[in-house]
Specification:
With about 250 residues, the protein is an alpha+beta fold. The protein folds into two domains: about 100 residues, Protein of unknown function (DUF541), domain 1 (Translation Initiation Factor IF3); about 110 residues, Alpha-Beta Plaits (2-Layer Sandwich), CATH 3.30.70. It has four helices and seven strands. It has a four-stranded antiparallel sheet. Helix 2 runs antiparallel to helix 3. The longest helix has 30 residues.
C-alpha cells in the first residue's frame, strides 16, 4: 500500500524534470541559422574556326521510265553501268562508290479513274530510280567527274557536301575558344556584381560542326567541265559553363 502512494509522486517528479528538455528542443531548432545556398553563374560560349574542305560527298543517280517495269529496269541498269564506268575512269576507288537507294514504282495516268471508268488509277508506265553516293578525295577533279557522270547518263544530282576530314583536331581548337568566350562573359558579369568566379561546377557541349549539302541544279551542268568552288567550311562549337560565384 505504501508503494501505491509513492508511485504517482515519483512519476510527477520525472515529468517535471523532463519538461525543460522538451521545451528547450524546439527553441534550439528555431534559433539555428539556415545554411545559405551557393550562388552560381552560367554562361554560354562559342568558338569558330575556318578550314579548307578536303573531301566532297556527291549524291547522284539515274532515273529511267518505260512502259513496263522490265524495260525501265534494263534502261536504268545500262545507264547506271555507264555512270559507274565514268566514275571509275575519273580515278574514284571502288571503296568510295556506294549504292544509296533503289526503287521501282508505277506511274499513273493524270486522268481521274472515274473518267476512265476504272476502279483505280490507270498505270501508264514504271519508274526505276537507282542512287549512288560518291566520295571524292581529289577536289581538283570534281568538276570533270560531274560532267562525265551527266554525259554518261546520270540525270539526278542530289547535292554535294564539302567535308573537312580532320575536323576533330580543328574542333578541339574551337572548343578552347568556346571556353575562353564563356569565361570572358562570366568574368564581366561577376565584376559588375562585385563578385568573382569560383570553381567550375559543370561544362556541357551543346552543338558542333555539321556541313550542309550544297544542291546543284541539272541545268548548271550543261557546260563542261562543271565549275565548282570548294571554299572554306566554318567549324563551330558551343559550350555551357556553370561557375560558383564568390561574393
Amino acid at each position: 500500500m505504501t508503494v501505491s502512494r509513492r508511485l504517482p509522486a515519483a512519476l510527477l517528479v520525472l515529468a517535471l524534470a523532463s519538461a525543460p528538455l522538451l521545451l528547450a528542443q524546439p527553441a534550439r531548432a528555431d534559433g539555428m541559422e539556415p545554411t545559405p545556398s551557393q550562388a552560381t553563374i552560367s554562361l554560354s560560349g562559342t568558338g569558330r574556326i575556318t578550314a579548307a574542305a578536303d573531301l566532297a560527298v556527291v549524291t547522284s543517280g539515274v532515273v529511267s521510265e518505260a512502259r513496263t517495269a522490265s524495260d525501265a529496269l534494263v534502261a536504268n541498269s545500262r545507264a547506271m553501268n555507264n555512270v559507274i564506268s565514268a566514275i571509275r575512269h575519273a580515278g574514284i576507288a571502288g571503296k568510295d562508290i556506294q549504292t544509296s537507294g533503289f526503287s521501282v514504282s508505277p506511274r499513273y495516268s493524270n486522268r481521274p479513274a472515274r473518267e476512265l471508268e476504272l476502279d483505280s488509277p490507270e498505270i501508264v508506265g514504271y519508274r526505276v530510280n537507282n542512287g549512288l553516293t560518291i566520295r571524292v578525295r581529289d577536289l581538283a577533279s570534281l568538276g570533270t567527274l560531274l560532267d562525265g557522270m551527266v554525259t554518261n547518263g546520270a540525270n539526278s544530282i542530289g547535292g554535294i557536301s564539302f567535308v573537312v576530314s580532320n575536323a576533330d583536331e580543328k574542333l578541339d581548337a574551337a572548343r578552347t575558344m568556346a571556353i575562353e568566350d564563356a569565361r570572358r562573359k562570366a568574368e564581366l558579369y561577376a565584376a559588375a556584381a562585385n563578385a568573382s568566379l569560383g570553381r567550375i561546377r559543370t561544362i556541357s557541349e551543346t552543338n558542333g560542326y555539321s556541313p550542309a549539302p550544297r544542291a546543284m541544279a541539272m541545268k548548271a551542268m550543261e557546260a563542261a567541265p562543271v565549275p565548282v568552288e570548294v571554299g572554306e567550311e566554318t567549324l563551330s562549337v558551343s559550350v555551357h559553363v556553370e561557375w560558383e560565384l564568390m561574393q
